[in-house]
Write a structure and sequence with these properties.
By secondary structure, the chain is of the alpha/beta class. The protein is built from 11 helices and 9 strands. The strands form 2 sheets. It has a 7-stranded mixed β-sheet, sandwiched between helices. The protein has a two-stranded antiparallel sheet with strand order 6-7.
Length: 300
């Protein structure tokens, strides 16, 4: 029943929010964020714990509390814009996006190498994807399966309507999907792929140091770069006033020596360092309301 209610709420949002004036929609979503922040539920407390690690402060520090409010407003702005994305318009997306290092994407794809873009859950990743598509560079991504299946199908249809190719992270009946092989094919064809990468959902990720503590990040970006020769570039995203910011970090080189696993570990740690840099610059736009560090996880 709860899954059906969530699905109903999303479907209603896709129907109604694009019809609202933008200022009204922003006011409503910010109000929801503030109510949630004042209630201090588990998600808000987890966000504050995560932000405390990023800033090096105690979670009870008033500045962390203020930052969590900004973070929750940022998170709900993402949802408001995601629901309104079909009506935002190509011209506004292109003129309102400030991309630093974006030429690295264009050069890699234009040369036929393809590119692996790895990003944390920051800013508005759907809008960043729309920006890349409007620049003439369609891409492939993966998505975690949601419950109920109708909600997952709706999200896939929404993102595909923007021009993305969306692959499921796992097969429909459970088990591993064949996403990796398809992603490798797309890279060998010279295309771009974009992968959320700072939170491992398979429990088979690479252990890295992240803001001074251990976590696991997905091995896929490094493995795909190793297997295909496509350059791996971390990216960070943020809200830039009424617009949006994108930074494409420098290519992570493939180590000259070491085993395959050792190379993947070195590259994934370098990816984590780039994520640290981007998140530290814009901590309020890092939407991590879940446990991520190993010492926060249930040992079971």
């Amino acid at each position: 029943m709860s899954d059906r209610l969530v699905a109903w709420a999303y479907h209603l949002g896709w129907l109604l929010v694009p019809k609202l004036p933008e200022r009204l929609a922003m006011w409503a979503f910010r109000g929801i964020a503030d109510v949630m922040w004042r209630r201090r539920g588990r998600s808000v407390l987890r966000l504050e714990s995560n932000l405390a690690r990023v800033t090096g402060k105690d979670a009870a520090d008033p500045s962390v509390r203020d930052l969590s409010r900004a973070g929750l407003r940022s998170y709900f702005r993402y949802w408001m814009e995601a629901l309104r994305l079909p009506v935002i318009g190509k011209e506004r997306i292109l003129t309102g996006t400030r991309a630093i290092g974006g030429e690295q994407i264009f050069a890699a794809v234009d040369s036929g190498r393809g590119i692996v873009l790895a990003l944390p859950h920051m800013g508005n990743w759907d809008l960043a994807g729309a920006w890349l598509i409007h620049k003439g560079y369609p891409f492939t991504t993966v998505m975690e399966r949601l419950k109920p299946e109708s909600l997952f199908d709706r999200f896939v249809a929404f993102r595909e309507s923007l021009g993305m190719e969306v692959l499921p992270l796992t097969a429909k009946g459970g088990g591993t999907a064949h996403a990796f092989g398809v992603l490798a094919q797309r890279l060998r064809a010279g295309r771009a792929i974009c992968l959320p990468a700072e939170r491992d959902l398979t429990e088979r990720g690479v252990q890295v140091d992240f803001f001074g503590s251990a976590t696991r990040m997905v091995a896929g970006p490094a493995l795909l770069s190793l297997q295909t020769g496509a350059p791996l570039h971390p990216a960070s995203l943020w809200f830039d006033g009424d617009g949006w910011g994108i930074r494409i970090h420098p290519e992570i080189p493939i180590p000259a020596e070491g085993s395959r696993q050792e190379k993947v570990t070195v590259m994934t740690q370098a990816m984590a360092r780039a994520f640290e840099e981007g998140i530290a610059e814009h901590p309020e736009d890092w939407h991590m309301l879940q446990r991520i560090w190993l010492d926060d996880l249930d040992p079971r």
